[in-house]
Design brief:
With 123 residues, the chain is an alpha/beta fold. It contains 5 helices and 5 strands; from the N terminus they run E-H-E-H-E-H-E-H-E-H. 44% of the residues lie in helices and 20% in strands. Helix 4 links the parallel strand 4 and strand 5.
Length: 123
């Protein structure tokens, strides 16, 4: 069995949400790891850098905005970042995060939109 061509990381402080999105992506053939906080995400990225990161905006501790900022600083756009949230668009954290990421999706995430975003990584 060969390893998946594209590795992704799903970061969400709600484990059920993270694992549901991860399973959806695995069904499409991606290799997916899950982190439930920003610190765990950074540790997993240090072990093996993914080509894409799906991150929740509103997490306790290190927020998705803080994580996106650190990833942008360290990897200078070499990974696709997609923010997801259930917060309103007028939230400052949402607006700041959108400015840092490549794409933005609302919860609940539409699987078709998610597939469209990550499909370009496999090309």
């Amino acid at each position: 069995m060969t390893a998946p061509a594209v590795e992704l990381l799903v970061v969400d402080d709600i484990p059920d949400a993270a694992h549901t999105l991860a399973e959806l992506l695995r069904l499409d053939g991606y290799g997916v790891r899950v982190a439930t906080c920003g610190e765990e995400a950074l540790r997993l990225i240090a072990e093996k850098r993914p080509l894409g990161v799906l991150l929740d905006v509103d997490m306790p501790g290190m927020t998705g905005r803080e994580l996106a900022h650190r990833l942008r600083d360290e990897f200078a756009g070499s990974m696709v970042m997609v923010a997801v949230t259930g917060l309103g668009d007028d939230s400052a954290i949402v607006m700041d995060t959108i400015a840092l990421v490549d794409d933005f999706l609302r919860k609940p995430v539409d699987p078709r939109q998610l597939r469209k975003i990550f499909r370009r990584l496999a090309e």
